[in-house]
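Obj: model holo form, ligand = MRU.
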Amino acid sequence: MIKTLEWTDAGVRFIDQTKLPTEEVYVTCATYQEVADAIFTMIVRGAPAIGVAAAMGVALGVRDAKADSVQELRPQFEKICEILAATRPTAVNLFWAIRRMKEKFESVAGQPVDSIKQALIKEAQQMYLEDIAACEAMGRNGAMLLPRSGGVLTHCNAGALATCGYGTALGVIRSAVASGSKINIYADETRPFLQGSRLTAWELNQDGIPTTVIADNMAAAMMKQGKIGAVIVGADRIAANGDVANKIGTYSVAIMAKEHGIPFYVAAPWSTIDLATPDGDHIPIEQRSATEMTHFSGKQITPTGIRVENPAFDVTPHKYVTAIITERGVAKPSYSESLQQLSRNEPVPA
Ligand code: MRU
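Output (holo structure tokens):
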């Protein structure tokens, strides 16, 4: 399995996703500041992966903090959490992970400093394992929703590279293929960062899953030609009413799917569900650097000084979403009810 990120004694090790697919390079972040930088610059990206990366960043910062007592450690811990939380605003997994590390800190705050450090390292490693298990469970829960043959469209990268392994949307695809489905995948290239053409295509290719890259503006034509039987994407944050924040362009894919009568599925771990946010209008959308738009591979592709907008995510209203696949089960409309049921670990009626 692709090692997206990994805890090592030397620090947190990442496959550098800015270099894929032409170079398979690994970087080790030896400090929590380097981990924060890796999240900000998208060496590591994808909501579940950045959540666990942040948890490992917290563990790394605390491990290396100079403190003889919890009183000395606490302000350093809080600063580490603050810096990691400031990296990217949309994926709620980041805040979920930091909150979980804070809860762990409080639960062991009465113990010696060394035990606190060990407990936080263990918690981050546990989150890593849980993320892989959640992806595998999503795969099992969602595989039968996909068609048994034909084309399936995905947008951005919601694969092993966006998680600790296996993937959310791509996990469902992997699971469907493992159970005998003869599907072929259309990967939207996903301008401007090209997560689809660089990352999704790379990892599906490694697995031998038939994959075709299309430019984002080709999807409607493919749907009209009957080449796409289902859409499946990941998510960065899902509000209580089922509105889905995901990579910019997801909203237009969902509208196109609806117009063509194609089911639109979202696969996400429970750490992506944000029941405290009522709807998509309340989800903060990250604006990234204009150079991602104005330059390609270091080469300027727009007129000097032109104004650009570069929102990294959009919100797909819940009315376009056929089902939300989680490790706890599959939520269907009405999401205000089904997500609450899953939050209580109650079964959702099929
Ligand atoms: O900006 P990115 O590459 O971090 O955005 C990633 C996405 O939008 C993914 O689709 C989402 O995080 C789901 S990943 C399982």
